[in-house]
Amino acid sequence: MQLATEHQQHRSLKLMAIGTLAGLFSGLFGVGGGSVIVPLLVLWLGYDERSATATSLAAIVFIAGFAAAVQGLYGNVHLLDALLIGVPAVVGVLIGAWLQQRLQARSIALLFAALLVASAIELILS
Amino acid sequence: MIGAIVIGLAAGVVAGLLGVGGGVLFVPGLVLFLGLDQHHAEATSLLAIVPVAIVGTYRHDRYGNVRRADALTLGVLSVAGAAGGVALANALSGVVLRYAFAALMMVVAAQLVHRALASSTSADLGVEDAVAEHDEVD
User: Are both A68 and A108 inside the same structural domain?
Assistant: First the structure.
C-alpha cells in the first residue's frame, strides 16, 4: 500500500517535471512542446509512442493555451493572423495525414529537413 | 490575409504528413512571409496551435490513445513553466530569440533526417501514423 502511494507520488513528480519543462519550452519558442513531452513520457513513464503522442496533443491544448494567454498579456498575439493560420492548418493536418499513406514520406522528410535548414539560415540572415 | 491562410494550410499538411508540430512551421512562416517580429510570431503561433491540437486530440481520443488524467495533469502543471517560458522569451532580444529558434529548427531537421534514415518503411515516420493506421481499420 505504502509502495503504491510512493509510486503514485513519483509519477506525479515526473508529470510535474514534464509539464514544467514542456511549458518552458513552449513559452520560450512558441511551439507546442510535443518534442519534449513525447520522449519523456516514453522514457520516464513507460508510454508507447502512440499513447505518448495522443496524450501530448491533449496536454498541448492547455500548454499552448496558457502560453498564448500570457503572451496576450504582453500584447504580442495577432488574433486574426492566429485564426487565419490555425483554422486552415486543421484542414492541412487532415490532408497531410491522408497523403502520408499515399506518398513516400521518407523522401519528403529529407526534403523538408533541407527546407527547415534553409529557413533557419534565412532567419539568421534576415 | 491570403498569405496567412496559405501558410496555415501548408504548415498543416507538412505537420500531418511528417508528424512534426505546427509551431516549428508557423513561427518561420509568420516571420518570413508575414513580416512579424520573432516575439509576435511566437505568440501568434501559440494561439494557432490550439485548434490544431484540439482536433488532433479528438482524432486520437476516438481510438482511446489519450490518457486523459495524465494529459490534464500535464496541462495544468505546465502553467508555471509556460508563464516562465513566455517571460524568458520576452526578456530576450528579438535577435537572440530568432537565433535560438533557428537552432531549434536545425535540431528538428536533424531528428527528421535521423528518423527517415532509421526507418525502413514510411509508416514509422510520422506521429500521425498512429491515426492513419487506425483509419485503415475503420
Answer: no
